[in-house]
Queue: 2 jobs
Job 1
Amino acid sequence: TNLIHRLIMKIAAAALLLAASANGFTAPRVHNSRTTTSLSVSQADLDGAQGMIDEILKTKNCGPVMVRLAWHDSGTHDCSITEEWPASGGAIGSIRFDPEINHGANAGLAGAVKILEPVKEKYPGVSYADIFQMASARGIELAGGPKIDMKYGRVDATGPEQCSPEGNLPDAEAGPEGKFGGAGGTASTEDESAAGHLRKVFHRMGLDDEAIVALSGAHTFGRAYADRSGLGAEKTKFTDGSATKLSDGSETTSYTPGGSPWVENWLVFDNSYFTTITDESTDEELLKLTSDKCLWDDEKFAPFATKFADKDAFFESYAKAHKALSELGSKFEDIE
């Protein structure tokens, strides 16, 4: 009887391995039951994770890519989907799985997940979803941005079957047929105008016009790369490895050269995006995309874009919009 029982267990284990292989993904490392269940996380673990994340951000100056990682995890949310969690997508940590991590809009983000793996290894009780969102918020705060009233205790998606379909994230420029977005994703985001496309993307998440403009202001932080978004130069005078400013007034050359920024001091989070895009005298190597310029051309976006030339006004709206984005679709458990 014991022999038969052991044989059955071996067959079952083999079947599970084959199923994983058939799904075309590498199963995430199982640190303990909290990796994929909803047990409460402790405040001590969250504090420890934040300390590790802060050190990573300061050492690698990788805040911008962490913002992109967190946003692309949460930005898949569709507020019209009412089925049981996590069907509506959002900040659920599903971006770590194939196929989502290999969606076109997520090019380059596998490296960001890898950078954060040591945090998960040391603090397995903290979900991937929390780690991604924490790295984004801390990246902004450490770069001089506003303090964001973050909420933690997110539950992780458990496998690739819980990934959102491709096509829910925004485009910066029109495609070859002159239209922004497409028919893919949970709802069509296709539109002939950049402003219309942005509304279809962000209104689907449940965010309003003020949030769209405020979140666009995060382009003050980071660069665009041709091999990721299809936009930007190989490098510019601001990203060629020469010194760039940090929020404390110091300078650093500790970053990977390449890409095109929207502003000169692209490792500082401030409101310079809203004073640079409309300034015709700015350096020609700085990005000014159609999805940027439409914030001043669209009559409903323009009042916010103008308002955010004031740093305090921008920070106030941005902090609210970032918090809302970071909680889209999330399922929270109590923190111990």
Job 2
Amino acid sequence: QLTPTNLPQQLNLEMAAQLTSKHISTACTAAARGSKPVAPVKLPASVLAPAAPVVRASSKPTDAASTRRGQRLTRTMAAAAEVVTSEAATAGLQTPHGGKLVNLQAPQSEWPALIQGCTKTIEASHRNACDVELLSVGGFSPLTGFLNEDDYYSVVETMRMKSGLLLGIPVVFDTDREDVVVGDKILITYQGQNIGVLTVESKWCPDKVKEASKVYGVTTLEHPAVQMISMERGKYYLGGKLQGLELPKRVFPCASPAEVRATLPKETDVLAFQCRNPIHKAHYELFIRALDAPNVREGSVCLVHPTVGPTQDDDIPGAIRYKTYEVLKQEVNNPRLRWAYLPYSM
């Protein structure tokens, strides 16, 4: 059982990945069969001990696909091993990513002056509007705006910003506008609303093939994310500080991180369930049974936190997905469950 207090600085990720995957598979099978939750994995000392680099000889040539799979595994496991430790993590609520929860929303009294000071206006796409909202309310804490060019390439190459902060996917604002220049203040609008002001600190033509290869491990357009960055996003990326104005109006409520954290109990475990699909029985059984696992403390709760922003073209719309969760919420009426909706774009 790995916790922020017993996870060492170096971890034999390959062995841990194998054990964890095996445990997850067993847990899913148990839930599907209606049996009791399995006991938590106790990793052997050889996994927890600092591991020296291992060089393996192979008689088989390594093809490009295998290399890419290995790179993706390395990047994924490196992200999984990132643990923030602090007093808040053990004495109250979990520490926000990067150490602080930001709020970029400008006071409403300042909106007229901010809007008047803008030099250009850009209408946001559905995906951009989601990113503006999450930046504004602190969903992408500790980011204070869209990534600049140097941080963008650092994230693409290393999954980390130049500061060393872990960030798996770059958060960028795209446009085809040729007239936007560094120093512009952009009023970002969305479906008749003024949702933010972006101070442009950098503008560049991204290497989208490199972004697809490094971030998603593939460059084929059959991959929905590769198709999105290649065919939906504009020619340029803009980076800079963001000041939030109105939040996009949606048919479902989206609580801010601060509001969600206010509903969570302190000094106990908070499990989390997140997916982009409509809720179904197997989902429910997995997270409700997890609350009774032997390594979960008394008084723990589960945060059900589905993504309801734009996803793949053939996915069920977010508004419909939201309704399935609301129906389940009313049917079970379980005080150990917390419900919140994430306006994240996949």
